[in-house]
Amino acid sequence: MGQNKLSGDIYYPSKEVIAKANVKDWDELSEKAKKDYPGFWEERASELHWFQKWNKVIDDSNKPFYKWFTGGKTNIAYNCLDVHAKTHRRNKLALLWEGENGEFRAMSYYSLHRETCKFANVLRSMGVKKGDRVTIYMGRTPEIVMAMLACARIGAVHSVVYGGFSVEALHERIEDSQSKVLIVSDGAYQRGKIVPLKEIADEALKRAGGIEHVLVVKRTGQEINMEVGRDMWLHELMALPIANQDYTVEVMDAEDPLFLLYTSGTTGKPKAILHTHGGYMVGTYTTLKYVFDIHEEDRFWCAADPGWITGHSYIVYGPLLNGATSFMYEGAPTHPYPNRWWQMIEKYGLNILYTAPTAIRGLMRFGDAWVNRHDLSSLRLLGSVGEPINPEAWKWYYKVVGKEKCPIMDTWWQTETGMFMITPMPSVPLKPGSGTKPFPGIEMDILDENGTPVADNEEGFLVIKTPWPAMIRTIYGDDDRYVEQYWSKYPGMYLTGDSARRDEDGYFWVIGRVDDVIKVSGYRLGTAEIESALVSHVSVAEAAAIGLPHEIKGNAIYAYVILKAGSQPSEELKDELRLHVGHEVGPIAKPEKIEFVESLPKTRSGKIMRRVLKAKELGVDPGNLSTLEE
Ligand code: WTA
Fold this sequence. Notes:
Layout: H1 15-20, H2 26-35, H3 37-45, E1 56-59, E2 67-70, E3 73-74, H4 76-85, E4 93-98, E5 104-108, H5 109-125, E6 133-137, H6 142-154, E7 157-160, H7 167-177, E8 181-185, E9 188-190, E10 193-195, H8 197-207, E11 213-217, E12 231-233, H9 234-238, E13 252-253, E14 257-263, E15 271-276, H10 277-291, E16 299-302, H11 309-321, E17 325-329, H12 340-348, E18 352-355, H13 357-364, H14 369-372, E19 381-384, H15 391-401, E20 408-410, E21 444-447, E22 460-464, E23 474-475, H16 479-487, E24 494-502, E25 508-513, E26 517-520, E27 523-526, H17 527-535, E28 540-550, E29 554-563, H18 571-584, E30 593-596, H19 610-618
Parallel strand pairs: 4-17, 6-7, 6-8, 7-14, 8-11, 11-12, 16-17, 16-18, 18-19, 19-20, 29-30
Antiparallel strand pairs: 1-2, 3-13, 4-5, 9-10, 14-15, 15-23, 21-22, 22-24, 24-25, 26-27, 28-29
The site of 5'-O-[(S)-ethoxy(hydroxy)phosphoryl]adenosine (WTA) has 24 residues, from helix 11, strand 24 and strand 25.
């Protein structure tokens, strides 16, 4: 790439960037991978540690249940820690952390390895075995990284629930995963306040059976309820001989489950996406290395939360697999002032910043001066994820934060893909708002309703045509739904749920979701979750939620509510409903606006036609209304 003339607003990488890049010629690599993508991934897998080599790279004998590196034995946590603790990286920083209250911690590969092994032994002592599910509900502290790695080490399957979710969301996820152990922090600092995670968990546990042990991590230190026989402090157990430094690791099959991560889909309640040790490891390792161009001296900051896929893949697994230093910050970007991020980049000399468009827009609003107070010359690369980035935010990020020398890696991917799918690499010419092209070894297309590829610049359904190592294996406990949701519209192809177009240079432009998923500040929520929270309120008979464009958040939630007979509409009730959704799902799910209505547009079969509501709000043509019930 780069030789041909490209059309539009192009940003070419500098000579310095290209000189340093792990991949200098993307086209060449893509061509090579296209000719033999199993071979391409096999070569990448060979860079990691396996107790036993695979006998097959891809097993597609039971599509769409693809298997990768079958016969191979490995452990992702072993590759994240033990491997480095035995090399020159032993004393290198694995994790660098700042609390919102200014506390600071730094852990070398040696110490993260040691603490994680102890943590793993604590879990073992609680009876956690290979294959058991463990729910993790914590703020952003080093312990969440240890908790995840400790599970992986002993072969347990972690299910991290984002600390911004609340009672019902946590309850549902605990129940669905049938976890017996919950790891929770007493609280988390956010915007100078304490989010009472243990208190929320206590309420969720009243609704859910099954949890036998709760392991509590002390962070905020306020008084909390500790149920005798069920709840135990991590720090107390870590001080006992049971937490000894037994460094045994569970040898895992490449296809053994690593984690479940719940995400919102087209219909119904959130579904558990299942990822495995082998393929996910190869995918996250390779994509981070190539796209964020990881070098030995780099300090990489992925500013997401570990409770989402971005944090799983690129705060925890990707950076540690690469032996890099991963930086994590606990709190809000604007606390106490809007320069907090820039201050930390300067203070720790961070080299790469990977965040979401909503955060960029949120910080942009405070003006350039907050950024310009700080020396950001350590930055080499920037990244964006979660939703399409508008060119205005892209340019601000590029000019004001990156000083026109840091290419922006706009990475398109999903919880289901586990790893970057459409993404540039530093040596690739960029167009603001486009993630450029699919990663080497990945083939993607844009199709019309009938499965025919659309013409250049026309909008259609985005699909993936080749299997990839970090791909979702199934929806935990629901193979049928996995097939139905992702593989049934166009047989043999993975349906992303996004619409996109491709320009004359082959660059992909993702437009947004075409299903009932709403991206609010980059967070993925389903209309069904918000609606069911509303309906669980005593005054509500029916509800519909839609996403409408919002300047900072990307989308904001609007809800339409039919009240039960006898309930009176009022402003107070609207506030109460918003709080109720916050309490049940989480603050991010609170509707921006609630409207009381007498009826909702529905199809004759009773499905709410959200696009009609949306069209009405936006003042546009609602399209085909033939299925609308009178
Ligand atoms: C959207 C987040 C445009 C998209 C990693 C996708 C993006 C959904 C981008 C997955 C991007 C993610 N440009 N849209 N760079 N990255 N999306 O599962 O709609 O939380 O389907 O994974 O986010 O959200 P998820």
